[in-house]
Specification:
Layout lengths: L5 E6 L3 H10 L5 E7 L9 E3 L3 H4 L6 E4 L6 H10 L3 E4 L7 H14 L3 E3 L7 H12 L5 E11 L12 H4 L2 H4 L2 H8 L6 E10 L5 E10 L4 E10 L5 E8 L2 E6 L5 E8 L14 E7 L11 E3 L2 E3 L3 E8 L4 H21 L9 H12 L5 E6 L5
Parallel strand pairs: 1-2, 1-4, 2-3, 4-5, 5-6, 7-10, 8-18
Antiparallel strand pairs: 7-11, 8-9, 9-10, 11-12, 12-13, 13-17, 14-17, 15-16
Amino acid sequence: MNLRPLRVGLAGYGSFARFLQKSWSSLEGVQIVAAASLHDAPENIRTYEHWDGLLTDKEVDLVAIITPPNLHAAIASAVMEAGKHVLIEKPVATALADARRLLEIRDRTGRVATIDFLMRFTPLAEIFASWKRDLPFGRLRRAAIENHAQDETLPTGHWFWDIAQSGGILVEHGGHFFDLIGSFTSARPVRVDRWAYRRPNGAQDRTLATVCYDDGLTFTQYHTFSRPFFFERTTTQLWYDLAELELEGWFPFSGRIRALTNAATEPALAMLPHFTEMSRRPVPQSGGALPPPITIGGEPFSASDEIVGTFDIRRPKMDIYADAVRAMLVDVRRAIDDPAHQLRVTLEAGVEALRLAVEETGAASAEARMPPPP
């Protein structure tokens, strides 16, 4: 079957939109046909000074929204009401009521709507998402993300520092990680505690959130935007019943694992890209022919060896990034062409990530400020 190309309009045309255009242009059956931009005028495609020009463009099938977050919900609502599909850069909105309203509009209009949680489409994230189904190392019990980012490209007047536009770090940035860890578990969040810190000028540059799940999983994410670009670092730690992982990268691209395995579960290590075994030792036995059961958290497990190893995708980070955004758009295209196809990232996922970032029910919230100098 020869389907006509999916014609994409870009609402916003900054550096990320240019990256999307370059990445998506290599996809068969996709055309970038228009963009709305106040400043940069892309070449070879129609340009509108305001995003509402995309609504009446008959050659635009899907609008990718890449604007400051406070505009996401209004643009997405108008796009779907105009009969077009929508891909929304995270967060889905800055207010939970606006995000929930998008669900009603999507259901009423029948349009396809998804969120740019592109981390789900990266290789290691796909592996860990499969582990929640197969449970080779038991359940995920603890997760922690430390994100120490640069602020050199975020001058004082940038919209990132204006909470009215960005929603704050947990809304604008943390949503990726709320969603990512949520994709690694089948458990449901039951409590969120949050803390934020402001500079003397009022800019929120550090934040912390802890999420507790109904199966005992706890997840902590910490973000700071205060480092020079060459000193950035993001690490992720995952603790399963039978494995511990330390991951490197804003989207993980390498890491180390220590795991208790048996003949049935050891092949799961081979799923990790370029896995290299560093050490192996047998699990202590009591003289029997079979390894004795191990009890962890009151649950029995079987393990014969403790294995330590490393893994690494061994590809340029920007290539991995580009593959992720292409896979995301291919998934959207499938949902547009086949109503029975289940999106890998639903609009509901975006609403849930925003809820964890902002909703106060069952949660504690605090904010600190540095006192002005004497």
